[in-house]
Each structure stands twice: as structure tokens, then as C-alpha cells.
Specification:
Number of strands: 13
Strand content: 5-15%
Mean pLDDT: 93
Distance between the termini: 87 Å
Structural class: alpha/beta
Strand order of the largest sheet: 2-8-7-6-5-3-4
Helix content: 25-40%
Shape: globular
Order of helices and strands: HHEHHEHEHEHEHEEHEHHHEEHEEEH
Low-confidence stretches: none
Radius of gyration: 23 Å
């Protein structure tokens, strides 16, 4: 008997679809830089080199001594790094905090290295927001405009988010009295970012102490994102750690301080109970930064001279832009620290102004892309080289771009 003819793959009855995808991923809110990339692709002139002031990725060279340390530390045989990081790295982080802020941290109980602070910021909400029915502390308070990862982490953790739009009349500084008492009563975590991205505003020690006291009285955590603490041009910004570590966890990174964004190396420091919980959580989500990068990080945290060199480079770029903005009628607010300038958009429409800049091959970020309160402002990240900054200003002047338009 001949076999039945083969007519190709047989139709298979459709079965049930796989389970749902987390709606946080499929929801309508996009990461700001994905939206900006679409505009760039549509509006930037082909063939004209782009100069990108939109994202905080320094174009300065990583100092040579850090790169050389890294190269020498690459082993012949690779092993998993310990999730708590090398003791020498924790000690280097604590030593830097002592020199920079005058605070004493226990390297074994109050410091935890991380794979860049972006990952650590995202995961913090998962550690502090309970998922049990009736959980009283289910809210994360975020001053806005803000680094978008604060909100993303909160949503993946199933938390409610309470935004506090920052205001020009307050100098773009967070005021805890603007949060209703009933919100504080259900707050698990307050995100505090000083020096502030995107505005460059800085909270003084009195303000930090007031917020720390509110957290201890109210029973919530303060996530103090201090990624830009070393990028200042006058007085060094203080740290929340100077107000004590109880209820506080601070985040520091080598990305901006040492031009090491691609190394993904930072640390968390603060409340020993929370650090212990995060140390127990870490093996479930990954391992530490590779040991050879940790060795480079030790060298970076132990040296302060190269950070002063980095500041001088940003100061030079800042000076040429401040001069341009002053000559052409632009209004700048806050911008005390960080490598950002917070600039009022001509006509008050931040998106339209950024679109105009894209047609000149210049990429900056609409303030409204970073949340409520940012409307009408544009964030300029002074990360291109000094030569590129001068080229950008030449394009602006050639096009007759004015701040009062």
C-alpha cells in the first residue's frame, strides 16, 4: 500500500494564547528617549552630523589610569563575582563618602555595590513595596519632572505613584509640605534627587534634614539619588547621608563622576537594615559587576584628582553655552549643578522648540518628556565635546535662534 501523499505541514488547531504580558510593558507610556529617537529620525537632516545634548552620556575619555587598571585586572579564568561585591570596593566607597561628605559608613553593613545605579533604582521599589492585600504602604512619591526609572520601578512593583510637580517659584526644589498627610500615611518610598535631573537644582542641608526627619517620623524610606553630587561649579552639594543613615539609602555612581557610563558601576549606602534586605535580594536578580570592573572602580573611588579635571571640562562647556544663551535672550533656571542646563523654551512650547533644533542637527530633550512640571523647558546635557558645543552654537547663530521668540 502506497503511503499517503505529503501535502506539507498540517493545519494545527489554534490553542489558547500564552498568558498576558505585564501591562506596564505594553502600556501607552514610552521611555522618553524612544519617543525622541522617532522625532530625530523624522526631522534631522540626512548627512548633517548630529550633536546630541539629549542624554546624559559623557563623551569625555575615561581617565587612563582607570582603563589601565581594568586591563591589568582581566583574569585568564572568569568566575562569578560575589553579589555583595569585593570588600576592597566597599571600603573604597566608604572611604570616598568619608572624604566627600564627612560621613562614616560601615563597609560591611551600610554599603552595597551595584551594577550601575539605574538597575538599583529600578529594583528598590520591589524591595520596599508589599504585595499583600490591604498593604498600607503602597505609594511612591516622586517630585516631577524626574528620571523616568523612578516611575517605571514603582509600576512594576505594583505601587501607586504620587507626583509632586516642582515649581519655578520654589527654585525647582522639593517641599515636603506640598504632599498631603493622607499620602504620607501610605507612602513606602520618597524619591529625592539632588543635584536634580533635569533642572540642576540643589537641596541644602537644612532641607535634607527636614525631609529625613519627616521620613523617620512617618515611617517611610528616602531613596536619595545623588548621581550628580560630584558635578558642581560652586559649593559641593551635600548628601542625605549627612543627616544620618536611618530610613535613608543613597545612590552614587562612577558614570558621571569618572566618565564610566559603560562600566555600570555604582553603590548604595545607608540604613543597615535595608542594605541587608537588598543584599539578600540581589542573588535572585543577578550578580555583581565583574571583578575586573570592580578593581577599576576601586581605583576610581580612591582618586579625587580626576574628578576635578572632569568638572573643569564641564565648566568650560557650560561657560560657552551660558554666554550664548545670555547674548540671545534665553532664560535659564536652577542649573546650579549637574551637566544640565534647564532652559525656558522660546514661546513656551518645549516640543516645538526641540523639533526646530532637530532640523539643525541638534538633539535636546523636551522637559515635558520627563513629567508634569517640565512643560515649557528644555534640558541641555553638556556632554558633547567642547568643539562640538562650539559647532552647535555656530549652527544656532547661523539659524538666528533667539530665546525670546
Amino acid at each position: 500500500m502506497s503511503p499517503a501523499p505529503d501535502h506539507g505541514p498540517r493545519a494545527v488547531a489554534a490553542g489558547p494564547r500564552p498568558g498576558p504580558i505585564n501591562p506596564v510593558i505594553t502600556g501607552p507610556v514610552e521611555y522618553p528617549f524612544v519617543r525622541l529617537d522617532r522625532k530625530r529620525e523624522a526631522l534631522a537632516p540626512p548627512g548633517l552630523p548630529l550633536i546630541n545634548f539629549s542624554i546624559g552620556d559623557p563623551r569625555e575619555e575615561t581617565p587612563a589610569f582607570i582603563r589601565e587598571t581594568l586591563a591589568k585586572a582581566i583574569p585568564a579564568v572568569s568566575s562569578y563575582p560575589a553579589s555583595a561585591g569585593q570588600p576592597a570596593l566597599r571600603a573604597a566607597c566608604a572611604g570616598w563618602a568619608r572624604r566627600r561628605f564627612g560621613v562614616t559608613l560601615d563597609p560591611d553593613h551600610e554599603v552595597l555595590p551595584v551594577n550601575g545605579t539605574k538597575e538599583a533604582v529600578f529594583l528598590l521599589a520591589l524591595a520596599v513595596v508589599g504585595r499583600d492585600a490591604g498593604e498600607a504602604r503602597d505609594t511612591i512619591v516622586i517630585p516631577s519632572p524626574a528620571y523616568p526609572v523612578y516611575e517605571a520601578g514603582a509600576k512594576f512593583a505594583g505601587a501607586r505613584v504620587h507626583f509632586v510637580p516642582l515649581r519655578s517659584q520654589d527654585g525647582w526644589r522639593f517641599d515636603p509640605d506640598r504632599v498631603p498627610g493622607e499620602v504620607w500615611a501610605r507612602t513606602a518610598l520618597l524619591w529625592l534627587n539632588s543635584p536634580h535631573n533635569p533642572t540642576g537644582a540643589v537641596l541644602d542641608r537644612v532641607s535634607l534634614a527636614t525631609i529625613a526627619a519627616r521620613a523617620r517620623q512617618g515611617g517611610f524610606w528616602v531613596g536619595a539619588d545623588e548621581a550628580y553630587a560630584e558635578l558642581y561649579f560652586e559649593a559641593p552639594p551635600p548628601s542625605m547621608l549627612e543627616c544620618g543613615s536611618e530610613n535613608v539609602i543613597a545612590f552614587h555612581t562612577l558614570s558621571k563622576r569618572s566618565a564610566m557610563t559603560g562600566y555600570r558601576s555604582g553603590f548604595m549606602a545607608g540604613d543597615a537594615g535595608l542594605i541587608d534586605a537588598l543584599r539578600r535580594m540581589r542573588p535572585n536578580v543577578g550578580v555583581a559587576t565583574p571583578d575586573f570592573i570592580q578593581t577599576a572602580a576601586i581605583a576610581a573611588w580612591n582618586d579625587d584628582a580626576h574628578t576635578a579635571d572632569q568638572r573643569s571640562r564641564y565648566a568650560a562647556k557650560r561657560a560657552v553655552f551660558l554666554d550664548y544663551f545670555a547674548r540671545h535672550g534665553f532664560h535659564i533656571e536652577a542649573s546650579e549643578a549637574t551637566f544640565y542646563l534647564w532652559v525656558r523654551a522660546p514661546g513656551g512650547n518645549d516640543v516645538a522648540f526641540v523639533e526646530r533644533l532637530l532640523r539643525l542637527g541638534l538633539v535636546s530633550l523636551p522637559g515635558s518628556y520627563l513629567g508634569a512640571g517640565g512643560e515649557g523647558f528644555v534640558r541641555w546635557a553638556l556632554v558633547p565635546t567642547l568643539a562640538q558645543c562650539r559647532e552647535a552654537i555656530a549652527r544656532l547663530e547661523a539659524a538666528g535662534v533667539e530665546g525670546g521668540a
